From TrEMBL:
This is Transmembrane 9 superfamily member. GO terms for cellular component: endosome membrane; Golgi membrane. The chain crosses the membrane at residues 226-248, 289-317, 323-347, 359-384, 390-412, 450-469, 481-502, 514-537, 552-579. Keywords: Endosome, Golgi apparatus, Membrane, Signal, Transmembrane, Transmembrane helix. It comes from Gossypium mustelinum. Pfam families: EMP70. InterPro entries: EMP70, MFS_trans_sf.
Length: 588
C-alpha cells in the first residue's frame, strides 16, 4: 500500500507539472498599435462530419502570402489541428475596408471542388490571437426549386472581422459574411474571384481573463444539465433507499434465522446463501484474465479521477487545443504501475504462479484493442488524406512513451505487487469438492442479469452522455465539469448498489459463481453506452461516409470497452466487500 500511495503521489505531481507547463506556455497577448496579431488557418471539412477535416489550403483559397506552419504541441497533432499562417493580415487597431487579400482565377476543377464543398456544408476554422472562429464556404439557393439540378451555388468572397479589444489586448472576435459579395460557382467554367476582407475595431471593458466565457455553455443548457443531474440524484436516493430497506430487512431475517439454527443445534440441512459458505470464496476460472481485468479497470478509474482533478484546476478551458488528449496519454503512461500492482497483487492472492504471463495479459488487455483500432482508423485517415491521420513522427513519440514509460512502470508495479505478500482473507474455508449449482430460471442467467444491471445506471446518465457526444462528435463546447463529476459519482454508486443486490440474489439462489458475474454486471453499462451510439448516429447526428462512420464506431468501441473494464472493477470490488461482510457475520 505504501508503494501504491507513492505511485499516486508521483502521478499527481506530474499532472500538476503538466498544468504548470500548459499555463506557462501561453503568451501574454499584449500588442501595440500597428503590431501584427497572429491569424492562423486551421482546417476545413463538412459540418456533419467533425472528424473528416482537411488542411485549409487543400482548397484554392488565397495563398499569395508565404505560408508558415505553426509549431504544434503533441496534443494539437493528436486533435487533428494543422495551423498555418492565414491569408489575411490584421494589425492591432488598424481598420480596413474591403481590402483585397488576393485575386484568383479558379479553374473548372477548382470550381467543381468548391461547388461540391458548398453542397456538403463545408466550414473553415481559424484562430485569431488564440480565439477560434468559423465560417461557411458558401450557400445553396434552393428556394422554389424542386429539382436539385436547378439549385444555385454561391461562394463567399468577403469576410467582415469585428474585433473587440480592451486596452492592449484582444477580447473577442466575430466574423460574418457579406451576403452581397458572392461568386456563382454553379457552372463548369473558370471564374475570377477577388477574396476581400474588412476589419473593424471596437473597445469594450471586458477583462482579458473572461474573454473565453462566450464559448462556455449557455445558462439554459446549464439549467437542463442541472435538472438532469437532479433527476439522477433522485433516482440514486430512491434506489439507495429501496435496496437498503429490502436488503437490510432480508439480511436481518437471514441473520436471525441462522443464529436460531445455531442455537437449536438441529441437524437440518442449511439453505440459502449460508449453505454455499464452502464454495463462495472458491477462486474463479481464468483467474489470470480476471486479475488483469481488475488491474486495467483500476487504472482506468485512476485516470478518470486525475482527469477530473485537472478539469477542476482549469486546464481544459475552451479551446485549449490538445490539452485533454495530452493529459490522457501522459496519465495513462504514469498510471501503468497501478494496473501492474493491482493485477499482480490480486493474482498472487488467488494463488496464481505465472505472474509474468499475468503482467503481459494486463498490458495487452487494453492496449491490444486500442492498437488494432488505431491501425485500422489511421489507415482510413491516410487514405482520405484528412488531418486526423497522425504523422509518422507522432506515432514514434507515442510508441516511445509506451516503451520507455508505460511498460517499465507496468513491470515495476507488477514486481511490487508480487512482492507485497498479500493474502486473500476469506471469512470461510473453501471445501475441496465444489458444490453443484442448482438449475436457475431464465431470468437469473448471466445475460439477463447484465441487462438488468446496466439499464438503471445508464438511465441515470444518458442525458449527460448526449451532451458529451454532442461535444466530442459535434461542435458544441463542454465546460460543465462539475456536473459531469457529480454524474460520474452517481454512476459509481448506482453501479455498486445494483451489482451488490444482484450478487445477493445470486447467492440466495445457491449460485456461488459470483466473481465473473459481478464483474460482467458492473461493466454492462458500457454495453448500453455502445448501443446508444447507434441511436445517436442515426437520429441525433448528421454523420455519414465510411471515414466518419468508422471513426465514430471504432473509437466509441474503445471508450465503451474502457467503461466496461472500469465499472466492472467497481462492481466486483463492491460485491467482494459485501460478500466478505455477510459471511463474517455468521458462524460457518
Amino acid at each position: 500500500m505504501e508503494r501504491m500511495r507513492t505511485c499516486l503521489v508521483a502521478v499527481a505531481l506530474a499532472s500538476l507539472c503538466c498544468v504548470a507547463h500548459v499555463r506557462s506556455s501561453a503568451s501574454d497577448h499584449r500588442y501595440k498599435a500597428g503590431d501584427e496579431v497572429p491569424l492562423y488557418a486551421n482546417k476545413v471539412g463538412p459540418f456533419g462530419n467533425p472528424s473528416e477535416t482537411y488542411r485549409y489550403f487543400d482548397f484554392p483559397f488565397c495563398s499569395s502570402v508565404p505560408l508558415k506552419e505553426k509549431k504544434e504541441a503533441f496534443g494539437e497533432v493528436l486533435n487533428g489541428d494543422r495551423l498555418v499562417s492565414g491569408p489575411y493580415r490584421i494589425d492591432f487597431l488598424s481598420e480596413k475596408d474591403a481590402e483585397i487579400a488576393c485575386k484568383r482565377k479558379l479553374s473548372k476543377e477548382e470550381v467543381a471542388r468548391f461547388r461540391t464543398a458548398i453542397s456538403k456544408d463545408y466550414y473553415f476554422q481559424m484562430y485569431f490571437d488564440d480565439l477560434p472562429f468559423w465560417g461557411f464556404f458558401g450557400k445553396v439557393d434552393n428556394v422554389g426549386k424542386a429539382d436539385p439540378s436547378d439549385c444555385k451555388y454561391y461562394l463567399y468572397k468577403h469576410l467582415v472581422f469585428e474585433i473587440f479589444y480592451n486596452k492592449d489586448r484582444v477580447i473577442e472576435i466575430n466574423v460574418r459574411i457579406d451576403p452581397r459579395a458572392v461568386v456563382d460557382v454553379t457552372g463548369d467554367e473558370p471564374v475570377d474571384v477577388d477574396f476581400m476582407y474588412t476589419v473593424k475595431w471596437k473597445e469594450i471593458d471586458v477583462p482579458f481573463e473572461k474573454r473565453l466565457d462566450k464559448y462556455k455553455s449557455s445558462s439554459s443548457l446549464r439549467q437542463i444539465q442541472w435538472f438532469s443531474t437532479l433527476n439522477s440524484c433522485v433516482t440514486l436516493l430512491l434506489l439507495t433507499a429501496f435496496l437498503a430497506t429490502i436488503l437490510m430487512r432480508i439480511l436481518k431475517n437471514d441473520f436471525i434465522k441462522y443464529a436460531h439454527d445455531e442455537e437449536s443445534a438441529d441437524q437440518e440441512e442449511e439453505t440459502g446463501w449460508k449453505s454455499i459458505h464452502g464454495d463462495v470464496f472458491r477462486y474463479p476460472k481464468h483467474k489470470s484474465l480476471f486479475a488483469a481485468a481488475i488491474g486495467c479497470g483500476t487504472q482506468l478509474f485512476s485516470i478518470t479521477i486525475f482527469i477530473f482533478i485537472l478539469a477542476v484546476v482549469g486546464v481544459f478551458y475552451p479551446y485549449n487545443r490538445g490539452a485533454l488528449l495530452t493529459a490522457l496519454v501522459v496519465i495513462y503512461a504514469l498510471t501503468s504501475g497501478i494496473a501492474g500492482y493491482t493485477a499482480a497483487s490480486f493474482y498472487c492472492q488467488l494463488e496464481g504462479t505465472n505472474w509474468v504471463r499475468n503482467l503481459l495479459l494486463t498490458g495487452s488487455l487494453l492496449c491490444g484493442p486500442l492498437f488494432v483500432t488505431f491501425c485500422f482508423l489511421n489507415t482510413v485517415a491516410v487514405a482520405y488524406k484528412v488531418t486526423a491521420a497522425l504523422p509518422f513522427g507522432t506515432i514514434v513519440v507515442i510508441f516511445l512513451i509506451w516503451a520507455l514509460f508505460s511498460t517499465p512502470l507496468l513491470v515495476l508495479g507488477g514486481i511490487a505487487g508480487k512482492d507485497s505478500k498479500a493474502e486473500f482473507q476469506a471469512p470461510c474455508r473453501t471445501t475441496k469438492c465444489p458444490r453443484d449449482i442448482p438449475p436457475l430460471p431464465w431470468y437469473r442467467k448471466t445475460l439477463h442479469q447484465m441487462a438488468m444491471a446496466g439499464l438503471l445506471p445508464f438511465s441515470a446518465i444518458y442525458i449527460e452522455i448526449y451532451y458529451l457526444f454532442a461535444s466530442v462528435w459535434g461542435h458544441r463546447i463542454y465546460t460543465t465539469y462539475v456536473i459531469l463529476f457529480i454524474v460520474f459519482i452517481i454512476l459509481l454508486i448506482i453501479t455498486a448498489f445494483i451489482t451488490v443486490a444482484l450478487t445477493y440474489f445470486q447467492l440466495a439462489a445457491e449460485d456461488h459463481g459470483w466473481w465473473w458475474r459481478s464483474f460482467l454486471c458492473g461493466g454492462s453499462t458500457g454495453l448500453f453506452m455502445y448501443a446508444y451510439c447507434f441511436y445517436f448516429y442515426s437520429a441525433q447526428s448528421d454523420m455519414s461516409g465510411l471515414m466518419q462512420t468508422s471513426f465514430f464506431f471504432g473509437y466509441m468501441a474503445c471508450i465503451c470497452y474502457g467503461f466496461f473494464l472500469m465499472l466492472g472493477a467497481v462492481g466486483f470490488c463492491a460485491s467482494l466487500f459485501f460478500v466478505c461482510h455477510i459471511y463474517r457475520s455468521i458462524k460457518c
